[in-house]
Amino acid sequence: MAIPHKVKLVDVGPRDGLQNEKQLVPAEVKIGLVQRLQAAGLREIEVTSFVSPQWVPQMADNAQVMAGIERRPGVRYSVLVPNMKGFEAALPSRPDEIVVFASASESFSQANINCSIAGSIERFAPVVEAARAKGIHVRGAMSCTVGCPYEGEVAPEQVVRLAGLMRQIGVQHVGVADTIGVGTPRKVQKALEAALRHYALDDVSGHFHDTYGQAVANTLAALELGVWQFDTSVAGLGGCPYAKGATGNVATEDVVFMLDGMGIETGIDLDKLVDAGLYISDYLGRPSQSRAGTAIARKRPQAQAA
Ligand SMILES: CC(C)(COP(=O)([O-])OP(=O)([O-])OC[C@H]1O[C@@H](n2cnc3c(N)ncnc32)[C@H](O)[C@@H]1OP(=O)([O-])[O-])[C@@H](O)C(=O)NCCC(=O)NCCSC(=O)C[C@@](C)(O)CC(=O)[O-]
């Protein structure tokens, strides 16, 4: 399969990244991050989630964040919803896309959303139907497609099964997530191929955490299959509160640096993206997790003068 000429990146930093911060990040900082990401050319941003604030207090300001963004035409703003209550709460914020999220492993499903895989699909079916009736695009995030923090290795057959269930209830696109970053290129390709049994290439994306430093390699492996859409996180923010030790997603800056070097178009201005990464890292009071972002920032005249 030829490597795609064009790639779409969905920055999930404001949601996947900031959901895992111990300190509560104020809504205006989250809004500032979204503004900077869209200024850098991101055309899809996962802004927040409408989940239970008892489970994930970091996202309790969801409506406030959605209301504060200056929306740009051509940018898709997505939010996670775990159930009908979340969907109804999200509606006034006018998301362009909702993301339902299920797991390929039973134990993670229980830990993350307090129900079985089958139970989660039952819960999502009316959400998907209601969203599509309103013309809202529905993406499905499939967690633990390579490994599970509780069960270890996850077989591709489990991914085939979950993708089939997502398809049955009308989910339009699936993201293949390596939640704990244990995937290596061939394993990740197998997980993607499992999703491709039920979805077309244009409806499958990769979502790779970088816990073991494999996520850029896994992105390249996905490109080799023709996959051209990826979730990434500015400054490598994040992790999952229900996957202990999992680090952030692959840094958007690192993926853009690789794609720029390969002549693959993303529409993203790397310099402005680095600014967005520095903005949030400065707020959090720690260095960016992006290798490319850090290297670029160090070469700037103001850094050299300091
Ligand atoms: C699914 C539930 C709600 C089940 O949680 P539950 O406790 O079983 O829910 P419940 O229906 O029994 O309700 C309990 C309370 O929560 C309230 N509630 C119920 N739903 C909502 C809602 N939507 N918004 C606000 N409140 C809600 C509900 O009203 C009730 O309130 P009370 O009567 O006690 O005052 C909970 O487990 C939950 O919110 N889980 C979300 C966990 C989460 O956000 N995890 C991180 C996102 S997934 C992820 O990061 C992975 C991904 C996508 O990035 C891909 C990857 O890398 O793997």
Automatic annotation (TrEMBL):
Q: Which UniProt keywords apply?
A: Lyase, Metal-binding
Q: Which reaction does it catalyse?
A: (3S)-3-hydroxy-3-methylglutaryl-CoA = acetoacetate + acetyl-CoA
Task: Provide the GO biological process annotations.
Answer: ketone body biosynthetic process; L-leucine catabolic process
Residue stretches making up the Pyruvate carboxyltransferase domain: 7-274
- InterPro entries according to UniProt: Aldolase_TIM, HMG_CoA_lyase_AS, HMGL, PYR_CT
Which pathway does this chain act in? Metabolic intermediate metabolism; (S)-3-hydroxy-3-methylglutaryl-CoA degradation; acetoacetate from (S)-3-hydroxy-3-methylglutaryl-CoA: step 1/1
Q: What is the name of this protein?
A: hydroxymethylglutaryl-CoA lyase
What is the organism of origin for this protein? Corticibacter populi
Kindly list the organism's lineage: Bacteria, Pseudomonadati, Pseudomonadota, Betaproteobacteria, Burkholderiales
